[in-house]
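cron nightly-structures :: item 1 of 1
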Amino acid sequence: GYISNYSGHAKIARLKFIAERVGPPLDLEALRMAADELKSGENTMAYSEIMEQIGGRLGQTYTLDQEWIDKVDREATKRAEKLDNELSTYKTNLIKESIRMGHNDLGDYYYGRGDLQSALKCYIRTRDYCTTSKHIISMCLNVIRVGIETNNFVQVANYVLKAEQTPELQDPGVLALLRCAAGLANLENKKYKLAARKLVEVQVELANSSSHIISAQDVAIYGGLCALASFDRAELKSKVIDNSVFHNFLEVVPEVRELIQDFHSSRYASCLSYLDALRPTLLLDIHLYDHVDRLYAQIRKNALIQYTTPFISVRMLTMAEAFKTTVQLLEKELASLIMEDMIQARIDSHNKILYARHADQRNTTFQKCLSTGEAYVRETTSMLLRASLLKNDMVQRPK
């Protein structure tokens, strides 16, 4: 199901993350799947760590296979020596393209072994040997992939920008991947509006090319929640609800599609119940878990503001029912929003009614007339005084 949307390092990282946060028997299932995935690669160190976490709880089949580790390590050492020798030869012959390929192959080797820092150094070294736009984009994508895995999102943002500025960037799959990476970087930096804007622009070409980083399901969830937390009503309608491309992503996660529709249609009780149902799943998401509380609080604030905007007065009992809360808690939330100047209103705490402080047009016009009249009187008095001074020759002349 869920985990089949990912491949490679992303799959292993998510399985390890889930195993750390759930109890038996789910943690063992996640560790078993991670062990199977690692056995098909070369990262013997990560495999040993997973087997240590399993600790013999899955029977004989899942005990440390030292024979396999030794065999893979031997083969890997030979391959590393071969790649190093090839790279030295390329450098001696000064063939730019071969040197680039040599660094790249060495980077892929270290990446497969789980040595991400060494992989990153190799990928960055290819930069000086890139001769075409395609080479630069390939280098950027490699650095972005490692940056996401090492949580270095400053680096991710820098290399997304570098790739986007490359001429001849037309591959829809690459463009989609870059938007996803930029969305993730903004999400990690708590810039939810920028994250939403990037993610709702992702094209459907993403489908299969990105499983080592992100899935279509993630694009829908991250993009949808960030949009609800940061977009105003008009932006939500134009960039999310009326966006036919993003709608295809939302079809993958019907709960998010429904809660966005409910939010926009002011069905807050239904919207909040969808959010509550999603929370346990989101807390197991490697990129989102840290943002769930902040995003949910902001979505709720936006919903409260949206609810109160059309009315002159609101009965707090009715509003509390719509938001599945008590009048006392609602009053605190509304008071907080008034203090933050996000709602123009006052609370009648005795009768439990919220009164909007809409601008009084009649009073504003009256005040404007008064101030205009006072200014006219001031100017007229000054003119009369000047005329009187001239008439009586009370003017200071130069000596």
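cron nightly-structures :: done
The CA atoms of residues 380 and 386 lie 10 Å apart.
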